[in-house]
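[Primary structure, fold]
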Amino acid sequence: MLEISDLRKRFAGGPEAPEGKVALDGISFTVRPGEMYGFVGANGAGKTTTMRIVMGVLQADSGEVRWQGRPLGYDDRKRFGYMPEERGLYQKMKVAEQIEYFGRLQGLGTGEAKKAAADLIERLGLGERRNDAVQALSLGNQQRVQLAVALVHDPAVLVLDEPFSGLDPIAVDALAAVLQERCRGGVPVIFSSHQLELVERLCDSVGIVSAGRMVATGTVSELRAAESGTLRVVVRDATPGWADGLPGTVTIEGDRHILATTGADDQEILRRAMKAGHVEYFGAEQPSLTEIFKEAVA
C-alpha cells in the first residue's frame, strides 16, 4: 500500500511574488495493492509535484510518503516504475537497446533485460520499430518506449505522469491493457491524466486536486453518489407548457420535450409528463466524472 499523508510544499518566490507559491497544501490519499488510481486536476494543481515527491525528485516541506506501512526510502524507490512529465529518452539510441539499457540500470542481468524488453516491445506494438532510433519515432511511439522503460524491471509500484498524452486510441488500448495486467498482479498504479473519460473507464479510485488541495477522492461510484443525480424526462408530442413552474430546464428536439432537473418531486413530474404526452424516458442519471470534476474545482 502506498500512503501519501498531508504533503505540503511551497516554492520560493521572486521579486514579483516574494511570498512564494504554495504547490501542495495537505495532500493525502492511499493507493492499495492492485488498485488503479487516477490523479486529476487542472494544470498547476499539484499533480506533478506530488509525484516528484513520491519519487524523491523533490522533498516535501512536511508530510510523509509510506510504502508497506513504513516511510518510503531510496531502496524502495528503486523498485518503483516512474514515467516523468518530461520524457527522458536517448534520442539516437535504438528502441530495443534503450529499453534493455534502462533494464540493466535497474539491476537486471543482460539476458533478463533483453527478454523483458522483447516482451514489452511486442505488448506495446513496437515490434516493427525495435531497431529504429527514438528520434525517428512519432511522439506516440516515443510515449510507448517511455512506458516500456518504466515497466522493464517489473516494478512494485507504477507512478505515471500523463502516460496517455498524445496516444491514438489503439495505443491507448494497448497501454491500458498492460497497466490492467500489472494491477491484476497486485501492483498499485497511480497516473495523472486530463482525459477524464479514460480515467473513469480505467480507474478503481480517483483523486481530484485543485490549488494544491485534495477536493474529492474515492471510487467513481462513491463520487457519483455524493453528487445529486439529474432526473431526465423525455415526453413525445407533449402539450406546450406542461413543465411550466417545474424546476430545471426543458429542451425541445423535434417532437420531444426533454426536462432535466434536480431536487424535484419526481412523482409530480411523472404525473404531469404522463398527462402531457407519451413518456419515452423517465429516470435518474448519475453525473460523469467530467461533471464531478467541474463541480469539485469550481
